[in-house]
Amino acid sequence: MAQLTINGKKIQTPGGTILAVAREHGIRIPTLCHHPALGPKGACRLCLVEVKGSRVLQPACTFPVSEGMEVQTDTPKIRTARKFVLELLLSDHPQDCMTCEMCGACELQDLMYEYGVKETPFRGERHAYPADDRDPFILRDMEKCIRCRRCIRACDELQSVNAISMINRGFRAKVATSFDTPLQESNCVFCGQCISVCPTGALTEIDSRGAGRTWQTQKVTTTCPYCGVGCNFDLHVRDGKVVKVTSRWDSPVNRGVLCVKGRFGWQFLHSPDRLTVPLMKAELWKKRTGTDGTPSPYAGFVEADWEAALDAVSDGLAAAKAQAGPDAVAVLASAKCTNEENYLIQKLARREIGTNNVDHCARL
Amino acid sequence: MTREELERIRAEAKQALEARDMTTLPEGELKPPRPGEVRVVLRNCGQIDPTRIEDYIARDGYFALAKALGMSPEQVIDEVKRSGLRGRGGAGFPAAQKWLFARQAVAARPAPADGSPPAYLICNGDEGDPGAFMDRAVLEGDPHSVLEGMTIAAYAMGATQGYLYVRAEYPVAVDHLQKAIPQARKLGLLGKDIFGAGFDFDVDIRIGAGAFVCGEETALIDSIEGRRGEPRPRPPFPAVSGLWGKPTSVNNVETLANVPQIILKGAEWFAAMGTEKSKGTKTFAIAGKVKNTGLIEVPMGITMREIIYDIGGGILDKKKFKAAQTGGPLGGCLPEQYLDTPIDFESLAAAGSLMGSGGLIVLDENDCMVDVARFFMDFTQDESCGKCPPCSLGTKRLLEILTRMTRAEGTPEDLLTLEYLTQNIATTALCALGQGSVNPVVTTLRHFRDEYEAHIRDKFCPAGVCKGMFHYEILAECCTGCGVCRKKCPEGVIRGEKKAPHEIDQPNCIVCGDCYKACKFAAIAIRPGPTEKSRRAAHKTETPQG
Ligand code: SF4
Ligand code: SF4
Ligand code: FES
Q1: Are A312 and A284 in contact (CB under 8 A)?
Q2: Helices and strands counted in chain B (H then E)
Q3: Do B266 and B334 fall into the same domain?
Q4: What mean pLDDT is reported for chain B?
Q5: Least CB-packed of B15, B58, B124, B444 within 10 Å?
């Protein structure tokens, strides 16, 4: 247990960084390169605080607390320093919030607002990289990048892919793949973890561009239908249509991490080809009901309801079993089902049908 | 290896060394010591064949190691502590203290279960200051002194593996080390159970990839781990969690090369040299407008005047001393009033500069201080790792302002912005590179503000450096009419009769400065305002900064 004071407030803590301890006690310190899902970096200098006895300002996100420490988090000296850093960042940032995808969800914008940075006193060169749309899914607009390295850490710490890192030094330092190739030519797996942690509009989803800012969409938390892992995420819904998927960091299953399908593969939801009712072969339907049924867009198939479809399946299985024994039937389960569902399927095969012919698509 | 065996080798090698004609050794950049020099670190350079371990042993090499291994690690730390040895890489942190912290950190954690080294010792040979080459001289000329120093330091702190980080630009140093390490291993001076004292230590070489910032110890550690070298915030300090998370001590080449001498001759011998808080000697690389340039080693506390005038032989061409930049690109520019300040860690820091690795660039009246600041800023911006905005963006903005000033485009606001930048970069940047990057600007601005103002207000470069910001005039009252300038002028635009005052045809002068350099009578003066031709030329050579 260490005892320290933050802004004069006495605090008892088992330890941690100044930032963590301050947050626990309801003291807000601004951050930019820090992300709760990532290791600390100390790069952006927004979280600078005064530690008594220290010559320079110290980053709260990396500095560990110690016994008797006296910390100030919001003095004029600190505010000047933070404002200075923001002015520098603004001097190298396109001021096009009007059309920026991240407007309203941008951490840089929020800090400029908080510190009242409307203009920068520095005139000079600004990075002018063309937006990089050579890849599917991910648009990299590197002139908006503030080099916080969150994306690099996400790619390393969350995805263990290390597709991106810094290249060049000084002003020319840039987040890129080796030799600045498109992501497709690197070992990137398009998980989009980098997008999910980027505090600015530098990394965004190509397919969601122009589809609505954060306050224009309704967030619906759901479970990914692609596989049995059961990752959670937020669907962004606008006018009854899904337009984007974002991470839910509080999800106990995936802790914000998603794969390419979950994050970028939502377009099927509104595909005209998507099946929304079960289909039955037209002949079979006629045989079972004596009617022609409702025609479907697919030749030879009519639209059925679940009751009728499941009845047809169970009758078919029972007939096959009666005719040739239970081992004439095999059951193939799907990775899209949950563990529990797959358990029930093998129960169906073994107990109801009486066969051990059970397999799973994940083994193929 | 035992002490007796070492003595036997020494006796034989001494005779062989004396019999050999050392003048046949290739001439290095190191000149023979000049009066006033005291060579401790450089004592063997040029005196022995660096590729022969026997030569080193002949000059008492590895006897300090034998002695140290007979002492306890605590005794070794204590000896070096009493000597007052401080890090020669720039910051001047007490060397023994670093080892003690690391030793305590090793003791505080369980021994590694996988048999990996409990701690590491790193020798920092990533000498990056432009013009500084003392580490190269030692690594090339006396590699075993560094290996011996490393082994003693490792014993003191509790490391069993060492890395020697050398910059790739030093192929000869790498070559000599690659020869020296197997030689030491063969004699059992590196490896298992050195001198039968039960102490294991080995050294590997790691070659840098040309980044100045990798001289910063945490960036250097990243680089050894195979990553891009970028400074990390401290704490945790390398002594607690350094290379691969183990306690690590990073010491500079010159620091380590001092260690064997301290052990051999005793702390008192070393502490007798230098000032109260800065003991021993320091190497300096003198460059610039001084007669004798090159590497020297002098006791701490010597004054700049002694270095520049006594050892350096004074300013070239009888010009006037203007300032000296100490400490490399992160140091400061000190004017005449500091000539008699003793050179030690504290005095230099108090003057707003740094000891740094010991670079000393002498500037005379024809050096423009704004341009000097711009030069160093160009270097720092290029070498900034790009991690924190104050350094990566701040130095860029400083460089842009300084560049504008040297192109007659500076404004009074620029000067205010310059000060705003320097104040804030120093307090917000992550590492010593960013924090120190402003020193050349701060010191030149403090001591030569009038020059900055001339550049902005009058668009005039009083030193006659910044193109398009001055012209030459022949002073009729000083001109003897010798005609040298007339003959030198490449454009043939100087007129005048023999023995009568000459004159420059201003509109056609390109302001090349040949006449100015040629005049023996100081009859040519630098005056504000460009000539028509020089203004156009300055305009043409302008390239966008990037
Ligand atoms: S999409 Fe995933 S793998 Fe690709 S760069 Fe981003 S984090 Fe790395
Ligand atoms: S792309 Fe985004 S996350 Fe990556 S460094 Fe730039 S601002 Fe940070
Ligand atoms: S949040 Fe601490 S330095 Fe960026």
Answers
A1: yes
A2: 23, 14
A3: no
A4: 93
A5: B15
- Report which of residues A276 and A73 the model is more confident about: A73
The rounded distance, in Å, linking the Cα atoms of A192 and B100 is 46
The reply to whether B309 and B425 lie within a common domain is no
Nearest chain B residue to A150 by CA distance is: B387
**Residue B388 contacts A, CB cutoff 8 Å:** yes
Domain boundaries, given as residue ranges, for chain A: 2-74, 123-270
Instruction: Give the C-alpha distances (Å, rounded to integers) separating A322 from A316, A318, A327, A328, A330.
Output: 10, 6, 11, 10, 14
A158 lines ligand 1 (CB under 6 A): no
In one-letter notation, the amino acid at residue A359 is D
Q: What is the CATH number of the domain that holds B292?
A: 3.10.20.600
**pLDDT, tens only, B318-368:** 899 999 999 989 999 999 999 999 999 999 999 989 888 889 999 999 999
Fold designation for A123-270: Alpha-Beta Plaits (3.30.70)
B233 and B344 part of one domain: no
Number of domains in chain B: 4
Domain ends where: B238, B271, B304? B271
Whether B76 is covered by a domain: the verdict is yes
Helix then strand count (H, E) for chain A reads: 9, 17
In single-letter form, the type of residue at position B71 comes to: M
Residue B544: inside a domain, yes or no? no
Listed in sequence order, the residues at least 6 apart from A36 whose beta carbon sits closer than 8 Å to its beta carbon are: A249
User: In this structure, are B79 and B218 located in the same domain?
Assistant: yes
Cβ contact B380:B330 at 8 Å: yes
- Residue carrying structure tokens 């990396």: A62
Q: Mind giving me the DSSP string for A221-261? A: EEE-SSSTT--EEEEEEETTEEEEEEE-TT-TTTTT---HH
What architecture is the A2-74 domain classified under in CATH?
Roll (3.10)
First to last CA, chain B: 58
Task: Provide the CATH number for the domain around residue B501.
Answer: 3.30.70.20
Is B401 a member of any domain? yes
For an interface test with B, which of A171, A178, A200 has the most B Cβ atoms less than 10 Å from its Cβ? Answer: A171
Q: Are residues B104 and B156 in the same domain?
A: yes
Which of residues B458, B493, B511 is at a domain's end?
B458
Say yes or no: B176 and B305 in one domain: no
* DSSP element (H, E) containing B90: none
Mutation pick for ligand 2 pocket among A141, A152, A166, A175 (CB with most ligand atoms within 8 Å)? A175
Does residue B403 share a domain with residue B317?
no
Which candidate from B233, B384, B420 shows the least CB-CB separation from A169?
B384
Give a yes or no: residue B161 inside a domain. yes
> B546: pLDDT confidence band, cut at 50, 70 and 90?
very low
Express each pLDDT in B118-132 by its tens digit: 999 999 999 988 888
The reply to whether residue A88 touches residue B435, judged by beta carbons under 8 angstroms, is no
Q: Do B215 and B127 form a contact (C-beta atoms < 8 A)?
A: yes
- Structural domain for B511, as ranges: 471-527
* Two tokens, residue B325: 């930049």
What SS3 state is found at A294?
strand
Whose CA is closest to B440, among B546, B326, B340, B539?
Answer: B326
Handedness of CA A97, A98, A99, A105 (dihedral sign): positive
Same-domain status, B72 and B147 = yes
Q: Does residue A46 line the site of ligand 3, with CB under 6 A?
A: yes
Chain A interface, mutation test: which of B214, B399, B423, B427, most A Cβ atoms within 10 Å?
B427
Rounded CA separation A15/B542 (Å): 55
Q: What is the pLDDT of residue B545?
A: 47
Spatial neighbors of A42 by CB under 8 A, at least 6 apart, are A33, A59, A61, A62, B232, B233, B430
Say how many C-beta atoms besides its own lie within 10 A of residue B249's C-beta.
30
pLDDT at B22 over 90: no
